[in-house]
Every structure is written in structure tokens, then in C-alpha cells.
Specification:
The chain is mainly alpha-helical. The chain has one domain. It is built from three helices and two strands; from the N terminus they run ααββα. Strands 1-2 form a two-stranded antiparallel sheet. The chain is elongated and about 50 Å long.
Length: 75
């Protein structure tokens, strides 16, 4: 498996994890107002964490795609 396909699979898996973590049933466990994390309720901090993880995942995918030489036959 070439690195282009491997990167896309890793990207898809991480975004499925993000979707599960920010929706039911996982978010239900983190939906409390207490404890406060950096002054934010747990539910807000949980969502912000996953938005940041998603941003860095997209950044990693962008950098890894631009670093590799283009081979149309590998697509």
C-alpha cells in the first residue's frame, strides 16, 4: 500500500473517531458542567479538544500530501 492511500485511511479513521467523540453516545459521558477545565465547562473543553485534534489531522494530511512527489498512476 502506498503512503498516499495509507495517509487517507489514517485520516478517515481519525475523523470517524472525532465524529463518535463529539456525538452520542460518547459525548453524553462528557456533557456535564463540572469540572471546569481552563475556566470552561467539561462539555465545551471536550468539543474544543476534538476541534483542535481535527485541525492538526487536516494539517498533517495537507503537509504529507504536498511533501510526496506526484505519481498519477498511484492515485
Amino acid at each position: 500500500m502506498n503512503s498516499y492511500k495509507r495517509n487517507r485511511i489514517i485520516f478517515a479513521v481519525i475523523f470517524v473517531i472525532i465524529a463518535l467523540a463529539t456525538n452520542w453516545p460518547v459525548y453524553q459521558w462528557m456533557s456535564g458542567a463540572e469540572p471546569l477545565i481552563f475556566g470552561l465547562p467539561l462539555s465545551f473543553a471536550w468539543l474544543i479538544l476534538w476541534v483542535i485534534i481535527g485541525f492538526f489531522t487536516l494539517l498533517w494530511l495537507y503537509i504529507s500530501d504536498n511533501r510526496e512527489p506526484e505519481h498519477p498512476e498511484d492515485l
